[in-house]
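Morning!

This is the sequence you dropped in the shared folder:
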Amino acid sequence: QVQLVESGGGLVQPGGSLRLSCVPTETMLEVKIMGWYRQAPGKQRELVASITARGTTAYADSVKGRFAISKGNMRNAVNLQMNNLRPEDTAVYYCNYKQPTYYSPNDHWGQGTQVTVSS
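The structure's back. C-alpha cells below.
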C-alpha cells in the first residue's frame, strides 16, 4: 500500500521559514486533491492548504499570504512553503491525498511532521 513520506519539519524562531515536502512511496494515479493539515495539542485537525490536480489552490485564512502550496518535481510530490511563522503555527503537519472513491483506499495520510515555532 502506498505511503506518504513527509519531511522538512523542525524548530524555527518566530518570523522564520520552513518548507515541508510530501512524496508518495510509489506513483499514484488520479490524485484529485493534495492538502496539508495540522493539529495542535488539544485542538482538532484543520486544513491549512490544498491544491487540486488542475492546480487550484486554497488556504485557511490564518495562513493566507504566508504559506504557499505547490506541486513538486518528483512524482505526485507536494510542498508547503511556510514564511513568517508564528508561535500559533506550532503543530504536527500532515499531508493528505485524495483519489476517486472507486480506489480503495482513496484517502491517504502521511505520518506527520512536527513544526515548532518558538524563540
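Headline: The radius of gyration is 14 Å.

More detail when I'm at my desk.
O.
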